[in-house]
Amino acid sequence: MKKIAGIRFKPAGKIYDFDSGAFVLKKGDHVIVETEQGLGFGFVVNPPRPVDERDINKPLKQIYRIANEDDFQRIEKNVEIEKKAFDYCNEQVKGLGLEMNLFSVESTFDSGKLTFFFTADGRVDFRQLVKQLVKQFRTRIEMRQVGIRNQAKMCGGTGRCGRIICCSSFLAKFEPVSIRMAKEQGLSLNPTKISGQCGRLMCCLTYENETYKTLKKSAPKIGKTVEVEGKKGKIVRQNVIGGTVTMKMEDDDLEIDVKIDEIES
Asked: What pTM, to 2 d.p., does this model score?
């Protein structure tokens, strides 16, 4: 039996399994782990749990040790390096006239590599930029072009609901979102009202979509003529969450709200 712990490197990042060995860990503990790029700094999301070695599909990296004060100081130094690298790279981007939007720089734990994240409308020839960055920082350089949704996830911010945007706080991956979901929930189709900071449809449109689809199966469709207490009317609106629909009466054109279970079949 091996003990496996779930480790994250970013607040809303992917959870990776590591062999915890004999370490006694609890949720929230910071650890130094072995990664493909050297040692990494992460925190425990899932405390160690016993797993049969036959259920492990691939070799697991080890948790190297529990993080100490020196490790936290190194992280602070890395943050300073990232800020300097960001400012310098932005200057070079402007000087070279490159059509790209640099928004983040990340350093590996050992400062052996700097990754520059940017968005752009198309392909960018950044070979000259990389040469200048290598000359300035004397380390490995990676330029990574990402989508606008990934930019929002990495930069964070506050959504129209007043809370930290979902992708940067807890969403580990992006789910497909369609305009049909907004229609299903009776939301305004104004792009400014159903789009997030990234300019794409808000991820939260997926949260209640299945519930709306299920509830709508038991509700009469818009445009259908129904009868309530002997009076007929046409369905003009639905409020499936509240369990009601709005009827436009045939006799006087008045609109009334009735409970779905009061409608005569």
From this structure: 0.79
